[in-house]
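hiii, so i know i said id send this last week but things got crazy w the move. better late than never?? heres the sequnce for the chain we talked about at the cafe, plus the structure i predicted for it. fair warning i was half asleep when i ran it
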Amino acid sequence: MSLAWERLARRLAAREPKTFDLAGLPPDHAYRWAAVAVILCPDPDAVLLIRRAERAGDPWSGHIGLPGGRQDPSDPDLCTTALRETAEEIGCTLSRDGLLGQLDDVWPRTPLPQVIVVRPFVFALATRPRVTLNPEVADTFWVPLTELQDPATYRDTPLQVRGHERGFPGYHLGPGIVWGLTERILTPMVALAMDGPPA
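okay and structure toks below
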């Protein structure tokens, strides 16, 4: 395990992740749980990202994100959701033995009829896994954590959301812009692993 992963594991173990407060929702407001896998690999220290396929009706169509998805009624917990969805989407079988810890829950800041709460789980692998993509995923790529720390990579970007232009912080990478929920998961993870957020 690399020094960055050891540091990250210690810091995740020493903190209590922030979880979504269901008591703050109106009684009639719908919500669903989802989970994603933050997969890390050394030489160099990098995180696996996916590009979702272009699909009509998918709010994350074409976006760069993390493998994962919604909790199935048969999933006993959200870590199982992350494991199952990762296997389904990219053919990568993760183990709880490689689990470093859990990051804070995230959810969309834009108003939606149904709140989707995403719980991120961090896994460390010794080598990069072979992936087999299902139709929901167009591509995968590895991003070095040093690139996510580069101030030239991390900046605000004007984006069209529901017909309105808004500025969002994001990572400007070769394959595209990482923003939204994925940015909000990666930024604190990078800070924990690499001693500080993007400048």
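btw The chain has a mean pLDDT of 89. thought thatd interest u
miss u guys!!
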